[in-house]
Amino acid sequence: MTADTIFETDTAPSAADLAFFVDQKPALATFLDDALTGLSAEPKQIAPKYFYDERGSELFDQICQTPEYYPTRTELGLLDRHGADIAAAVGPDCLVVEYGAGSSLKIRRLLGALDAPAGYVAVDISRDYLRAQMSGLARDLPSVPVGAICADFTKGFDLPPESAALGSRRLGFLPGSTIGNFTPDDAQALLARSTKLLGKGGLFLIGVDLKKSKQILDAAYDDGQGVTAAFNLNLLKRMRTELGAELDEHGFEHVAFYNREQGRVEMHLEAKGEQTISLEGQDFTFSDGERIHTESSYKYAPEEFAEMAQRAGFEPKALWTDPDGLFSLHLLEVAVNA
User: Which candidate, 193, 169, 180, places its Cα nearest to that of 121?
Assistant: First the structure.
């Protein structure tokens, strides 16, 4: 446990169905501060976490239904197809700790497949959303004690004392290829921190998007219906409506492509002609074709990710992929000498 960790247990009625709800009071950067910093950078950038206002979340749900976007349905298929194999590899009575819980769609599949899980702890930075989602999950799964921690898992977090009652053998869960949104160095650092949290004998089940043809990857991030484009361009709407930015929403277009050299899909907003975004008394000018980098999504070959995990202090335990080689689930075990 870090010396400056603050635990605040929530006793509000809406948390009554939970084994515990602990607020570790994560520092929240503001959209305005990050927008000003990102637009001042070279190249210009905005963090992908700002995609997800209410409209952005609706658009992402629509993206998951497009024929081109394979990750969500493929990962769900892996959880369904290999649930018994995952349960056998993990064993009974584990405490599942999910990083960035969000929607409970995938954890329901995993908890349903595991052999008598000792409990489930959800970690997410959005306090109200987390409490509502996990209270609903606890009511739906009364046989599995559910706890929740409001924390920023990207910066590290601690399990509170209350979690000890749910079991000591831990299984981390990071689905959705979220690991791909980190640079390789940052992804390895997250894995290294996780060896301490999960402890001796701890396991980590991680969804990892695989390297594949540029044609498939480009289409997945630039669907024919234009849903991903609307999702990306929604950042400009948010800046205008929430931050009071002066800009031409139609003066930018969505650009997405697989950067083979970097091993990642990149999403950008590209200026069509000269553009200016005015925000808080500052003017940020764009030349024709200049871009705002909004997301990177790294893809890995199975052996690349396994090597990264070993450098971070894990040993590969099992790997599941779909028949088309689109997506993978890696089960890692904390190395003895970690």
Answer: 169
In the block, which residue shows the tokens 């899980």? 117
DSSP 3-state of 229: helix
Give how far Cα 91 sits from Cα of 84, 96, 146, 185, Å: 10, 12, 19, 31
Nearest to 218 by CA among 164, 172, 179, 256: 256
**87-117: per-residue pLDDT in tens?**
999 999 999 999 998 778 899 999 999 999 9
Q: What is the 3-state secondary structure (H, E, C) of 271-305?
A: ECCCEEEEECCEEEEECCCCEEEEEEEECECHHHH
- What distance in Å separates the CA atoms of residue 79 and residue 112, rounded to the nearest whole number? 10
Residue 13: strand, helix, or coil: helix
List Cβ neighbours of 147 (8 Å cut-off, separation of 6 or more). 18, 19, 20, 21, 22, 119, 120, 121, 122, 134, 160, 162, 163, 166
Token readout for 254 is 């969505």
pLDDT higher than threshold 60 for residue 8: no
Q: In the chain, what is the greatest distance between 2 CA atoms, to the nearest angstrom?
A: 60
User: Has this prediction a pTM greater than 0.85?
Assistant: yes
State how far the Cα of 245 lies from the Cα of 42, in Å rounded to an integer: 20
Among 94, 99, 107, CA closest to 190: 99
Residue range 145-201, pLDDT digits in tens: 999 999 989 888 999 998 988 888 999 999 999 999 999 999 999 999 999 999 999
Inter-residue contact 330 to 208 (CB < 8 Å): yes
If you search the block for the tokens 């998007």, which residue do you land on?
209
Q: Residue 209: CB partners within 8 Å, gap ≥ 6?
A: 71, 177, 180, 297, 298, 299, 300, 326, 327, 328
